[in-house]
Each structure stands twice: as structure tokens, then as C-alpha cells.
Amino acid sequence: MTDAKTLGQALDALLQPEKFRDYGPNGLQVEGDRDVKLLVSGVTASRALIEAAIAADADAILVHHGLFWRGQDGRVTGWMRERLRLLLAHGIHLFAYHLPLDAHPELGNNAQLARVLGLQVQGRFGEQDLGFWGVGDQVWGQPQDLADHVARTLGRQVTCVGDPLRPVRRVAWCSGGAQGYFEAAMAAGVDAFITGEISEPQAHLARETGVAFVACGHHASERYGAPAVAEHMAQSMGFAHRFIDIDNPA
Questions:
Q1: pTM of the prediction?
Q2: Rounded to whole angstroms, how far apart are CA atoms 233 and 114?
Q3: 79 with 85: CB under 8 angstroms?
């Protein structure tokens, strides 16, 4: 068991949010009134996750996607009111880390996605060094072989666009909605790029350059960082941890 202030300080020391230009506040977003005996981790602070945490008698929640984002409507109505009502009524602390959780070299979303997919990190690229690149534990002869491996490993269908015959040796990846990193990945000299989402322009770039673009789902690519950090904290600070995955097709 630990208090929320100590947990927040440990999370900040590990993830170093002050180093990032982000889209919303990192750290403690909603203050509860409980000591932490059980920390629940998840991808997004949705009502479904909050309700599941309440059912598990959790004292705190750690997520990648929190409640507050730059430019959003600041009024506490509708879905925002309901999420906050549940958290406050049950005294549950909410911690959220966005880009810091993507970037951590060992426990972050990109490092953990590499572990799950069998990718060896050799370098980083892109704005704030959020993108990773490297090689695989196995050799993928063609982009579809890589796409099939990603689909089997993550348990969902993926989109693959590019030269179907180009050998895949070097791979770049950046979890979530990192389609804007595609050109930086190509500049790093890779044969394929993995991220969560693809937008209309990237399909044309993939076809014209031959570099494969593999879109595996925003949620699916970001299921691994929060539980890795939460489990690290649980082991080092002496409380329990449970990952709750709320399915999301996006």
C-alpha cells in the first residue's frame, strides 16, 4: 500500500513528463481520497474502464489516454460529468501519461510493442524521438508476411499498403495515431512502418515509394505501456496491479 502523492512522484520520476510538449496534462488528473492498494491500468479513461475499476475495488487508475486534452470544451456535462462523477464518488485517483508513456525506452508503448512483435530497437526518429526503428527477430520476406505476423500477434486485422514484393529488412514503428511520422520513417531508410492508423495521404505515399505502411489499430498498438509501467510500480512499491483491457475496434 502507498499514498497517491508518493505514487505520482514515482511515476513522474520514471516517465519525466516535463521533457515533452504534449496535448494535455500528464500525471494526476483526478485526485481521489484513498491509499493505493490496487492500481488498475488501461488504455483510455473511458466510463467502461472506470466502472470495471470500481467493480475491482481499485484505488487508482493509470491510463495512456486521460480525460483532458488541449482545445476541448471545458464544461463538465454529459459523458465528462459521468466519468468524473464515478471517479469522485468512489474516491479513485486517475493518473494519465500520453507522450511520456509512448517514449519510455523500456516500459513505454513503443518499447513494449517491440517486445511483443519481436523487434530489436536500433534507433529512434521523428519529433521528440517518439518513433523507433530496428530489425526483427525473424526475417519477413515481403510486407504481407510482416502484416500477417502483426495481425496474429495483436489479434486483429491490419491494413497493409505498399510494394508487395519489397523485402522487409528494417522496420519503423510508432504506436497510436502516428501516421504523420511516415515520412520521417522513410527518411530513416526503413522498408516498412507500423502504427495504429492510416490516413488517406499515406496510402498514396506507400504506393509511390514502395515502403510498406502497416496500420494495426490505435488501441491494439497501445495496450502494453500502461500495464508495464503499472506492474513496475506495483513490484517496487508493494501494492497490487490489474490490467483491464476494454475492447476497442479503432
A1: 0.97
A2: 21
A3: no
